[in-house]
Amino acid sequence: MNNPETEIIKVSTGRSQYDIVVGRNILQKAFEEIFQEYEGHKIAIITDSNVEEIYGNKILQKLDKKDRVFILCFKAGEKSKNRKTKEELEDRLFELGFGRDTLIIALGGGVTGDLAGFIAATYMRGVPFIQIPTTLLSQVDSSIGGKVGIDHPSGKNLIGAFYPPNKVYIDLDFLDTLPNKEIVNGIAEIVKSAIIKDGKFFTYLESNIDRVVKLEKEFIDNAIISSLKIKADIVQKDEKESGLRKILNFGHTIGHSIEILSDFEISHGRAVGIGMAIETSISEKIGILKSEDKERIFQLLKKSKLLDISFKTSADKIIKKTILDKKTRKGVVEYSLIEGIGKAVYGIQVDDEIVKKSLAEAGLS
Ligand SMILES: NC(=O)c1ccc[n+]([C@@H]2O[C@H](COP(=O)([O-])OP(=O)(O)OC[C@H]3O[C@@H](n4cnc5c(N)ncnc54)[C@H](O)[C@@H]3O)[C@@H](O)[C@H]2O)c1
Ligand SMILES: [Zn+2]
């Protein structure tokens, strides 16, 4: 690889094994490796309209007029993550003569990864699939773990599969062009991973979060790699979310409700930021988290700029929405909560009164 500091993180579950290659300026080398490894394959690079506009030409140069490689583009945005776009892309693949020897590459954010991965999972009953994530969120979260899928008018991510990638290439230079408003979504997941699983990383963030948020190279690179290792470790132990993987949902029960009630005006990252604050409060109130640890978590969330917005709604509405959340078992909401810095627990049922008090403290009552 061009950069000696390229890092390889290995993911190994019962069913799948893949490498996550992380570094800067690794795209050229990544394509060389792919072309070699998938020599007899026809390759479809699925990407969205924004990424295609910025990187299309650069990628075409790297392809060096390879006639077995095609770029397939769809309109950027969550609204495209649906059956219609899946069908259109599949039709294109058939028109272009893609057969069993197909490799699909997802080049883009989480929308592209989820959609292209789901296409790979079902095209010809499954073809190899490589992730090249280009947003902070997709680099630390959605490109690993094997969840792929699309939305349905009834809700997000309701149709999908577990279909792990064959490899993930994370080129951190993609972050240079990422719009500011997208950064917060990745920061929320980075901070979450420290809170739930890694006290040392949490301490690192306490000192350096300002520089991580500004995407200063050494600091954001460290944060992404630490975060990836945490997610990889959790996914290895419980790929299909029958237990431990649920701790990744910390902040998301309340967070999702806020996201939906705001009609998606509040971004995922900020909603999860507020969700983490409230679920930290809940953890303290049910007696599993010390108040000094709660204070440290609150301080880090503030410094991460995840609590910068206010949102007006009622506690009752939020609680009602949590019941409709997919993590509900028979109408009972189960929270993933915090027992200490770097220590999360899952499957906890909480009294509505405690949730209400915690929401009230955050100004939502
Ligand atoms: N599979 C999982 O485990 C998992 C986990 C978390 C989230 N998700 C999913 O991920 C999606 C959100 O992902 P996202 O936040 O990456 O959204 P996204 O894919 O829509 O990307 C956000 C925006 O950034 C643009 N973009 C992407 N890379 C860029 C770059 N390098 N420079 C400039 N612009 C760029 C995109 O075109 C888009 O407009 C949601 O659909 C969510 O459900 C999946
Ligand atoms: Zn999330």
Topology:
Blueprint: E1 7-12, E2 17-23, H1 27-37, E3 42-48, H2 49-63, E4 69-74, H3 83-95, E5 102-108, H4 110-122, E6 129-133, H5 136-142, E7 147-152, E8 155-162, E9 167-171, H6 180-197, H7 199-213, H8 217-237, H9 252-261, H10 268-285, H11 291-303, H12 315-324, E10 335-340, E11 343-348, H13 352-361
Parallel strand pairs: 2-9, 3-4, 3-5, 5-6, 6-9
Antiparallel strand pairs: 1-2, 7-8, 10-11
Account of the 3D structure:
It is a single chain. With 365 residues, the chain is of the alpha/beta class. It has two domains: 7-177, Rossmann fold, CATH 3.40.50; 180-361, Up-down Bundle (Dehydroquinate synthase-like, alpha domain). Helices cover 48% and strands 19% of the residues. It has 13 helices and eleven strands. The strands form three sheets. A seven-stranded mixed β-sheet has the order 1-2-9-6-5-3-4, sandwiched between helices. Strands 7-8 form a two-stranded antiparallel sheet. A hairpin with a 2-residue loop joins strand 7 and strand 8 (155-162). The longest helix has 21 residues, at 217-237. It binds nicotinamide-adenine-dinucleotide and zinc ion. Nicotinamide-adenine-dinucleotide is lined by residues 48, 50-51, 54, 76-78, 81, 108-112, 114, 134-135, 137-138, 141-142, 145, 147, 156-157, 174, 177-179, 182, 185.
